[in-house]
């Protein structure tokens, strides 16, 4: 089968299944199977070996069943770097660029920042900060037995210097001295427990552990603010990714805990996606 014919076959299969972006997902599948980029794909008119055609169709069937394209490909890009992903780890999303960008701004005037990323998942936040702030000391805490290997693999793949900690954030907090951190950053679970069953079919593939924020969606914010705030240096900062409509509640939590300079930052859809604040003793 020549490339244009395979393209049509995969796209038609995805369209019949009602996949949201059949054209884009088709390109992702074919580029992965043929080991080329999109520009090269457009130019190719050659006949594809049957085994590769079968591989592409098999991937298309997985996508048609609702499995996320990121899991099918086994990797995904975030802020210009590639990350290994798969079932059991949260998929990197553009939304997280907002909190990473704000965290970088907060650290730009700190000479040798000490940073902890809580609920680190695949490591996209910790790795980006470590690569963009080469003088930083970065810790990444992840509880999940399934996600932690992705974290360590991505650290190695991106040649980042990070201290990966396989632990519950409640258990390892005592390993850090009070007043030792310049920044706490986190993209914690923030979806209400009762709402998870109503999420998109694709999201159901992602680990509940990385999604479930408790009855009101704020369990992890409460926990982090309560347990980890004493670990910040005087003038240290905190940066959270948050869900839609959560800013006011989290801002009040931070204010009550003694934080100042509390700010929300919107994503490209004008949804407040990050909250940052300073802590002064």
What is the helix/strand order? Answer: HHHHHEEHEHEHEHEHEHEE
Q: Give a quick account of the main beta sheet: strands, pairing sense, barrel closure.
A: 7 strands, mixed
- What sort of overall outline do the alpha carbons produce when their principal axes are compared? elongated
Q: For the CA atoms, what is the radius of gyration?
A: 21 Å
Helix count, DSSP H or I runs of 4 or more residues? 11
Instruction: Name the CATH superfamily assignment of the largest domain.
Output: Vaccinia Virus protein VP39
CATH topology of the largest domain: Rossmann fold
Overall number of strands: 9
- CATH arch. level architecture of the largest domain: 3-Layer(aba) Sandwich
Q: Give the distance, in angstroms, between the N- and C-terminal Cα atoms.
A: 68 Å
Q: What structural class is derived from the secondary structure elements?
A: alpha/beta
Structural domain tally: 2
How confident is the prediction overall: mean pLDDT? 94
Q: What is the CATH C level class of the largest domain, in words?
A: Alpha Beta
Question: Beta fraction of the residues?
Answer: 15-25%
* Poorly predicted residue ranges: none
Tell me roughly what share of residues is in helical segments.
Answer: 25-40%
The neighbouring-strand order within the major sheet is: 5-4-3-6-7-9-8
């Amino acid at each position: 089968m020549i490339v244009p014919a395979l393209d049509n076959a995969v796209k038609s299969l995805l369209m019949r299944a009602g996949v949201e972006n059949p054209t884009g997902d088709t390109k992702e599948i074919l580029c992965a199977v043929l080991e080329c980029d999109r520009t090269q794909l457009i130019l190719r008119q050659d006949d594809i070996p049957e085994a590769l055609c079968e591989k592409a169709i098999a991937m298309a069937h997985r996508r048609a069943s609702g499995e996320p394209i990121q899991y099918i490909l086994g990797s995904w890009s975030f802020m210009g770097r590639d990350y290994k992903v798969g079932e059991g780890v949260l998929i990197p999303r553009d939304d997280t660029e907002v909190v990473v960008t704000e965290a970088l701004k907060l650290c730009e005037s700190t000479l040798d920042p000490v940073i902890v990323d809580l609920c680190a998942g695949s490591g996209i936040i910790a790795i980006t900060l470590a690569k963009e702030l080469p003088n930083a000391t970065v810790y990444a805490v992840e509880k999940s037995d399934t996600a932690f290997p992705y974290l360590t693999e991505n650290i190695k793949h991106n040649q980042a210097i990070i201290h990966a900690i396989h632990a519950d954030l409640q258990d390892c907090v005592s390993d850090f001295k009070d007043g030792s951190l310049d920044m706490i950053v986190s993209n914690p679970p923030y979806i209400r427990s009762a709402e998870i069953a109503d999420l998109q079919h694709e999201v159901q593939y992602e680990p509940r552990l990385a999604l479930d924020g408790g009855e009101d969606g704020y369990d992890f914010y409460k926990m982090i603010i309560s347990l980890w705030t004493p670990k910040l240096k005087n003038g240290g900062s905190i940066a959270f990714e948050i869900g839609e409509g959560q800013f006011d509640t989290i801002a009040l939590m931070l204010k009550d805990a003694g934080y100042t300079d509390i700010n929300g930052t919107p994503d490209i859809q004008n949804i407040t996606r990050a909250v940052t604040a300073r802590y002064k003793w």
